[in-house]
Structure formats: structure tokens, C-alpha cells
Amino acid sequence: MSRSGTAGYDMSIIFSPQGKLYQIEYAFKAIKTGGLTSVGIRGKDCVVVATQKKIPDKLIDPKSVTSLYKLTDYIGCVQTGIVPDSKSQASRAIQECSSFHHKFGYQIPPNVLAKRMADIAQLSTQHASARPLGVAMILIGIDDELGPQLFKVDPAGVYTGYKATAAGEKEQESTNFLEKKFKSNPQLSKDETIQMAISTLQSVLGADLKSSDLEIGICTMDNRKFVIMTDEDIDSQLTKLAERD
Amino acid sequence: MSSVGSGYDLYVSTYSPDGKLFQVDYANKAVENSGTLVAIRAKDGVVLGVEKLVPSKMLCSGSNRRVHHIDTHVGVAIAGFLADARQLITRARNEAKNYKSTYGQPIPIKVLSQRIASFNHMHTLYGSVRPFGCSIAITGIDQYGPQLFLVEPSGSCVGYFGASLGKGKQAAKNELEKIKFSEMTCREAIKEVSRIIYSVHDEVKDKDFELELGWISTETNNVHQIVPKELHDEAEAYAKQSLEDANM
Asked: Which residues form the signal peptide (chain B) (predicted)?
């Protein structure tokens, strides 16, 4: 199928006559090529990111594969999309956090980091030299003044704060699922938030998940640090979820 | 769907309408055309084996080496364009040297692999460069034990228990899946790697090949070396024997 409508306006970062940036749209499609789905959910006093862990090849050492990144002790993120691009973006985010701390003497707040990463992403939407990275970053942290925070940064250079969000292959289905659940504006406890994340993934993937299929990271108001849940903790949440149903 | 190039495959800085980077896919094809590489992470070390295809009888044996040392505790093997790989090897050697100079300790294998992966990744971002047409298997022993990583043209870096690259990749992979890595020693792994390479070698399409073997284990005092002649000959004999037994 030849895209005569785009006719050369989609080869690099230039506007089409309709005012679209096709390369950015294609970058969004690239996020889905990773084949994974992630969700982020903000509870009353905690915030959670969860993603699929798919290791199809049993020759791979599972410890070497992860989509969750600890950016500082207090901010973590899940990167969905092209894996090498996510490592590159995570690496840059860690540098930005570190440089902020060095310059200003305190830990970078999540919204400031989100804005900074979005500004960096925006550069490749305007300069044709480097392509946009095919990654969506969902970052979480506890802000000293504002409480639990959840942001998503995308290749277009847009960052938004969310109550709940999703990224990846089943982004649309996950978002629909979460919109229904959040209609009543629930105030979720820590367990409820984690279980909501797990049940969202289970629902859109159409399968029961084991702890080896999941990666979950959490920040709570009590322990402000970003913690990646162990398999045992994930298992206990899965059991509680099954009992509840 | 534009799944065949058609203009989106000219620069690596251009996404196709499906969100693919064709130049990276094409770089992977360059790797697939090279001689088979097999690596096994055993319980006491790591073994690398390469099917080095010899296109002409005029070549001196041992030329166009595909197994290289990066530091005393790190060794690599390459699949794909040897010239591109030379760049990566030089880069890896510099990284290892600078790390030692800055931090006072030998570079952890994971760190080195991630740095080479980031270097590869950088060449997938700009229209003025092309991705490297080679994958490298990085092996070594550090404070975390024996490690094996594969770094690909896309910049992906993944740890493996057993890995294969090149022409016979799929066939080698099927053989590797039968192995119990946690129970195998390096000496046994050398034999297995040789056997797998001999079994995936295509006698019809490629005539001559040299088997290159490298290893690092507690037996070598955690120093990466080319496998000594006696072990090498023993492994080749075992491999040839297994091939005969299989054909009978």
C-alpha cells in the first residue's frame, strides 16, 4: 500500500500540508512494536508502575532483562517501546536527576524531571539530526508537597500528570479498563492499587499472570523510596487478588 | 503496509509507517550471514566458539581472528562484518582501560556490555551514520561470577546462559536448549561448543572452516585465553566423532 497522501512529508521531521508530523506518529507506532504493555496507577498514598515481563527464550538470563529503572532513590520509571532507546532515555534521566541534585542541593521533584525529559524529547521533533526515541516513559515518585505523582512522557515531547495511565501494545484497552474503574474516583490503598494494576494487565492480556510475568515498582508515602517488588511480594498480592475474586 | 523498505530504509533516523527502523533490521541480516558463533556460560566460566569460514586455501591459518581479548578478565567473539567489529573491540578495550583507571577495579562485564550497547545504539540515532553490521558476544568473570552478554546492532544488550549467532543460529539454539548449564563445567562446555559448531556447519555451501575457541574459567585463573592446543584438539576430535555417530 503506497502512502501517496504522505508523499515525502513523512521521511523526516517536517510538517505535512495538513500540519502533521508523520515521523512522530510513526515513533508512537514504534512503541507498540515492543509487544509489551505497562500501566501506572496513583493511589491515595502510593503510586505503582507495573509491566509485563516476557522472556520467550529460555537461554536468556532473566536477571539481565528489565523495563523498570530506578532513576533516583525516590523516583522510578517504566519504559515501554524499543529497548535500546529505553536504556538510553533512562541513562539520560539519571544524569538529569544527578545534575539537578548537584546544582540545587535537593532531590529533583517528579514533575520537574518529567518536564525536563519532555523538553529533551521535543528537541528531536524539531531538529532533523536525531530521530525521536521510540519509548514512552511512565515515571512515579512522591513529591514532598504534592504527594504521590504519576507522569507519562512520550516521543512527541508531551508530559502529563495522571491518576492512571498505560502505554504499549494494549494501551487503548488498558486505558478503557482504567477509565471505567476510575469513574467513581476511588481512593485506593496500597494493596488495592497494586491489585488494580495487576488486574488491568490480566484483563487486557486475557491471561492469568504469574509473578515471573510481572514487574512492579512502587513508591509509598511511608517509605518514599522507589522499591521494585520481589517475586514473593507479587505472589502474595496475586493470591489476595484471587481470593478477592 | 510498507513492510518492504521503499524509501523508509535509506537512513536509520527515519521510522517506517509501522514504527520500524529498517536500517537496524538490515544490519541484523549482515550478522546472519556470518559463520556461526556459539557461547556457553558454564558453572565455572564461559566458553566461546566460532566457525571461522576460510574462503581461500591461500589464507594463513589463524588469520582473521574472531575471538579477541578486551582485558585480562574479558574476552569477546564477533559475528558479522569484521571491520566494523574492530571498531567495537577498540572501543571496548578503551572503556575497560578507562574504567580501571577511574575506579581502580576491573570493569564489570555488565557495565562493559551496556557501554558497547549504548555505543551501538548511538549509531542508530543519526542519519549521518549507519549501524554496525556486527553482533558481539562479551564473556568474562567478575565479582558476580561468569557472565555472557550479546550486544546487537540495535544496541540491545541481554545476558544469556547459552547464545548463538550467524548462519547456524537457529540450529545451534535448538542444541543449546538441551543443555543443563548449571551442571556443566568449562571443560565439558568446550566439547559441547565444538560439537554444536560441527553439527551446524553446512558442508555443501561452505567448504573449509577453522574452529576458534576461547574460554575463561576458574581453571585459567579468571584470565581469558584462547583454548590450549590439547584441549582444542580433544574437542575437535570429540566433535568429529559425534558427527560420525550421528550420521551412522
From this structure: none
Question: Cα A69 from chain centroid?
Answer: 10
* Chain B: residue whose CA lies nearest to A55: B158
Q: How far apart are CA A153 and CA A165, in angstroms?
A: 11
Indicate if the pLDDT at residue B181 is higher than 70.
Answer: yes
Residue of chain B with shortest Cα separation from A29: B19
| Cα of B226 to nearest chain A Cα, Å | 24
Specify the pLDDT at position A204. 94
Strand arrangement, sheet containing A214-220: A164-168, A37-42, A46-52, A214-220, A227-228
Strands (E) across A135-187 are located at: 135-143, 147-153, 159-161, 164-168
Taking alpha carbons only, the member of B225, B164, B169 closest to residue B41 is B164
State which residue of chain B sits closest to A23, comparing Cα positions.
B15
ipTM of the complex: 0.81
User: What residues of A are in contact with residue B176 (Cβ under 8 Å)?
Assistant: 59
Phi, psi of A200, rounded to the nearest 5 degrees = -60, -50
Whether chain A has a CB inside 8 Å of the CB on B127: the answer is: yes
Chain A residue numbers touching B46 (CB-CB < 8 A): none
Q: Where are the alpha helices (DSSP H) in chain A?
A: 22-33, 83-104, 110-126, 171-182, 190-205, 231-244
Chain A residues inside the 8 Å CB shell of B18: 26, 29, 33
For residues B190-215, average pLDDT: 90
**DSSP code at position B13:** T
Please state, in angstroms and rounded to a whole number, the distance separating the CA atoms of residues A106 and B83: 47
Among the partner-chain residues B19, B41, B120, the one whose CB lies closest to the CB of A30 is B19
pLDDT digits (tens, 9 = 90+) for A22-58: 999 999 999 998 899 999 999 999 999 999 999 988 8
- What is the C-alpha to C-alpha distance for residues B134 and B162, in angstroms, rounded to an integer? 19
Its pTM stands at 0.88
